[in-house]
């Protein structure tokens, strides 16, 4: 039997194949959403009308819709606008928070199901800078997820990154639940005030106690991540530089 040629191409490893599958699913999701004009459906008010027509089932439908669409890379801003317009302020705040948690769980579960341990080998070879995030997620999972959720990074990207990391699902969900509280409150409150301004044709709703509190919470959330990074992650690369590993 002839020996195998030494220059034969290597078969792609499991990590590469699973990453390709994950990217393909994301690309297919975006293509389907574009084909069916899902984003335009949100913008045009069709989603709001649909939710109102569901009556008592609307809150459950909204949470599921938010979880699925955000997992499929639809901007959460559009979905929050719909929810804030349809529901009362307190109900919108609660549903936006639960919907964000649902999206975080869906994204994490998708990445964990497809990626698994094989992805760690791919990171080690192709994106060594990400290894520092991965190690932190393994040893200091709660604080790392908390930090990553506070910084301005695409929501679903963090969900996928965590799902492909060694962090446990309970640690991930607990850290996410705490970290997104200020953002959910601030954003829902500010959006709600903006909608009231449009309805009243006056800036007076912006000076109510609730939107002022939202702005204060937002400011604190912006100032907090650099302090967390300086205190706990002095050697951690910036999130926008994490993927520059080649």
Which features does this protein show?
74% helix, single chain, mainly alpha, 12 helices, 246 residues, globular
Could you characterize the architecture of this molecule?
This protein is mostly helical and 246 residues long. It has one domain (14-233). The chain is 74% helix and 0% strand. The chain has twelve helices and no strands. Helix 3 (46-53) packs across helix 5 (76-86) and helix 11 (169-200) packs antiparallel against helix 12 (209-232). The longest helix has 32 residues, at 169-200. It is globular and about 55 Å long. It starts with 13 loop residues before the first helix and ends in a 14-residue tail after the last helix. Mean pLDDT is 78; it is low at 239-246.
Q: Largest sheet, if any?
A: none
Based on CA atoms alone, the radius of gyration comes out at: 21 Å
Number of strands: 0
* Separation of the first and last Cα atoms: 40 Å
Strand content is under 5%
Task: Tell me the overall shape.
Answer: globular
Helix content: over 70%
User: How do the SSEs run, as a string of H and E?
Assistant: HHHHHHHHHHHH
SSE inventory with pairings:
Layout: H1 14-35, H2 38-44, H3 46-53, H4 58-71, H5 76-86, H6 89-114, H7 118-126, H8 130-139, H9 141-150, H10 155-163, H11 169-200, H12 209-232
């Amino acid at each position: 039997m002839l020996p195998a040629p030494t220059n034969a191409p290597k078969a792609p490893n499991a990590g590469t194949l699973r990453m390709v599958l994950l990217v393909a699913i994301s690309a297919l999701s975006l293509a389907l959403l574009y084909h069916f004009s899902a984003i335009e459906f949100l913008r045009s008010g069709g989603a709001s009308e649909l939710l109102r027509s569901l009556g008592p089932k609307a809150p459950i439908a909204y949470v599921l819709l938010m979880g699925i669409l955000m997992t499929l890379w639809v901007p959460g801003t559009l979905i929050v606008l719909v929810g804030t317009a349809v529901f009362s302020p307190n109900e919108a705040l609660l549903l936006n928070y639960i919907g964000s948690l649902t999206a975080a769980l869906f994204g994490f579960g998708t990445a964990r199901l497809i990626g698994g341990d094989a992805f760690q080998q791919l990171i080690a070879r192709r994106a060594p800078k990400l290894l520092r995030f991965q190690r932190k997620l393994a040893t200091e999972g709660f604080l790392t997820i908390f930090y990553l959720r506070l910084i301005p990074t695409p929501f679903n990207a963090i969900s996928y990154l965590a799902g492909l990391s060694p962090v446990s699902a309970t640690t991930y969900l607990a850290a996410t639940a705490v970290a997104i509280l200020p953002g959910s409150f601030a954003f829902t409150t500010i959006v709600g005030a903006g909608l009231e301004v449009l309805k009243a044709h006056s800036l007076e709703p912006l000076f109510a106690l609730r939107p002022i509190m939202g702005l204060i919470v937002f400011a604190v959330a912006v100032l907090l991540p650099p302090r967390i990074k300086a205190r706990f992650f002095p050697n951690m690369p910036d999130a926008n530089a994490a993927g520059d590993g080649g």
